[in-house]
Write a structure and sequence with these properties.
single chain; 46% strand; alpha+beta; six-stranded mixed β-sheet
């Protein structure tokens, strides 16, 4: 069974590799979920199955190409971990680039992710996808 730190390390490696099935395999059969949809406009709340987690990350990786993942800090307290970092994504549909700061909170029990909360800079995502504009 993996420790909380090990689960976070594997999660980040699979995120960097854009391995949606691998991310889903790290999860419990049901995950308490709070994260925006890939376009950043709507928030998805509630329980998700492994299959739904995989589908969410497949959609993310189809919408955005991950160019860089930087982790600034990982804070672990028992089964809870907070990851503070940034990503650089390219939006193939628009050619735009999005530099997105984020905090992800994972709760791990018996080596599986039971809760996943992601708080990214949704304005940066919306600007890159055309979902928002800045006035000149």
């Amino acid at each position: 069974m993996l420790s909380t730190v090990e689960v976070v390390q594997v999660f980040l490696a699979r995120l960097a590799a854009q391995d949606a099935p691998g991310i889903a395999r790290l999860c419990a059969p049901t995950v308490e979920w709070e994260a925006p949809e890939p376009g950043g406009a709507r928030w998805a709340l509630g329980s998700r199955t492994r299959r739904e987690v995989e589908a969410r990350f497949l959609t993310l990786f189809a919408t955005f190409e991950l160019e860089q993942l930087s982790v600034r800090q990982v804070i672990v307290d028992g089964g809870d971990a907070a990851v503070v970092g940034s990503t650089r994504w390219r939006v193939p549909a628009t050619g735009e680039q999005a530099d997105v700061r984020f905090v992800a909170v994972l709760s791990v029990h018996l080596g599986e992710i039971e809760q996943y909360w992601q708080m990214p800079d949704t304005l940066a995502v919306a600007l890159a996808t055309g979902g928002a504009r800045t006035e000149a």
